[in-house]
Amino acid sequence: MGKIVSGGREVMSDSMIHNGIEPARKENVQRPTLNVQRPTPETTVAHIYVHIPFCARICLYCAFYKERADSSQTQRFCEALLRELDETRGGNLLVPETIFIGGGTPTALTTAQLEFLLGGFRERLDLSALREWTVEANPGSVSSHKAAVLRNAGVNRISLGVQSWDDELLKLLGREHNAAQAEASFHLLREAGFTNLNIDLMFGLPGQTLAQWEETLRKTIALGPEHISTYCLTYEEDTEFFLRHARGEFREDPESDAQFLEAAMQMLEGAGFQHYEISNYARPGFASAHNRAYWAGEDYVGIGPSAFSTVGLQRLQNVCDYRAYSDRVLARESAVATTEILTPEMKRAERIALALRTRDGIFSSELESWPTESREFIDLGLLREVNGNFILTPRGKLLADSVAEAFV
Q1: Residue 240, pLDDT score
Q2: Based on the number of CB atoms within 10 Å of its own CB, is 309 exposed (0-12), middle (13-18) or buried (19 or more)?
Q3: Domains of the chain with CATH codes
């Protein structure tokens, strides 16, 4: 099966990585191919991902492309993002329904830089069809001024990287905020007028107890966000946590992870959240349109260093270095570092693996080539057939990766 890639961090969860989706890493960079041109699709591309790699502090578990911000380079970087958007518009008909600005920490940019960047997107794009514009934010990098700039630009959804309400676990993760700052950031965003807020949480952390996780869930429910993402920690290469795991300091515990996931399902669904994808829960009407587009296999364009684009059967990845990225784009050279031509079989495998993770499941006809496997999973109580679709049962969600592997 080919590598499945989506552009935004919300879908780059542990569970998606298990299915072959990997965040951009420096070691994956191949020699840049300067003459690569973005494909011209026959239809409009409706989804855009923008990668801002800057972080005030590098978290010990994170394998996404990120770097500490260099204040002498960030404005130039913002100019490069808009230049790439100009170049991309020349090869694609972009009328976005969703925009997702992730990282890194987009709110690590200054207020003036955010205003410049978001204003540039508004000037360059037809936003008449825009339904969802998400920006990721870390507690501690959110201010009332930045929140106002985001709202005024048309951003209508914020994904807040809380991860935990336990200060000791936050220190373990290397986060720059504490629980009090996270709660203050949430209320600040509410006061700024945001009515669609996501909170990111992590479980399976070293030393984390089920009681701590349940308290984190209770605290999150009490705040009343519209969306909650719950990701299990994975030990990714090129991270401090991976090294500590290799040394035996940290250990994975699949049984404990399953208990954490089961607790999340019970508590969040009991509180009225719809479990619409393995790692994602939403109030009715607040499922992430951007992420659902990834899971449905729709085309998307990635802007920024390390960002992926998938249009038709062509998949591209930009160079994973923001300085090299800026140099190339501002010199009117291609930012694309690697290309991959997907086969219909690869696309089909991706569609099955991703669709099985969602509440709607996969059309039964898509699994006709695996009648024995389908029947076995039904007999084991992992799959059920509803209105012509195969859907994971609650027990099947605990073993989602194993079920998906049987069909791809």
Answers
A1: 61
A2: buried
A3: 9-344 (3.80.30.20), 361-405 (no CATH)
Beta bridge partners of 300: 310
CA-to-CA distance for 191 and 212, rounded, in angstroms? Answer: 28
Whether residue 2 is predicted with pLDDT greater than 80 in this model: the reply is: no
201 φ, ψ (degrees, to nearest 5): -130, 155
Average of per-residue pLDDT values in the chain = 84
Beta strands in 267-349 (DSSP E): 274-277, 280-282, 301-303, 308-311, 314-318, 336-341
pTM here is: 0.87
Whether residue 51 contacts residue 307, with contact meaning beta carbons closer than 8 Å, is answered with yes
DSSP string, 215-260: HHHHHHHHH--SEEEEEE----TTSHHHHHHHTTSS---HHHHHHH
> Which of the pair, 141 or 247, is modelled with greater confidence?
141
3-state secondary structure of 310: strand
DSSP secondary structure string for all residues of 66-103: -EE--TTTHHHHHHHHHHHHHHHHHHS-EEEEEEEEEE
175-182 long-range CB contacts below 8 Å, 24 or more apart? Answer: 175/57, 175/59, 175/138, 176/56, 176/57, 176/138, 176/140, 176/141, 177/138, 177/139, 177/140, 181/139, 181/140, 182/139
In the block, tokens 């030393």 appear at 207
If we measure between CA atoms, which residue out of 259, 198, 197, 268 comes closest to residue 232?
259
- Per-residue HEC secondary structure of 319-340 comes to CCCHHHHHHHHHCCCCCEEEEE
Pairing between β-strand 308-311 and β-strand 314-318 as defined by DSSP bridges: antiparallel
Residue 258: is its pLDDT beyond 60? yes
User: Which has the higher per-residue pLDDT, 251 or 310?
Assistant: 310
| Per-residue model confidence as pLDDT tens digits over 341-358 | 999 989 888 988 999 999
Nearest to 15 by CA among 339, 399, 272: 399
Q: What is the pLDDT of residues 10-40, one digit of tens each?
A: 333 322 322 223 333 333 333 333 334 454 5
Specify whether the CB–CB gap between 53 and 26 falls below 8 A: no
Given a cut of 90, is residue 205 above it in pLDDT? no
222: CB partners within 8 A, 6+ apart: none
Percentage helix, strand, coil for the chain under 3-state DSSP, each rounded to 5:
40, 20, 40
Do the strands 54-55 and 94-103 form a parallel or antiparallel pair, or are they unpaired? unpaired
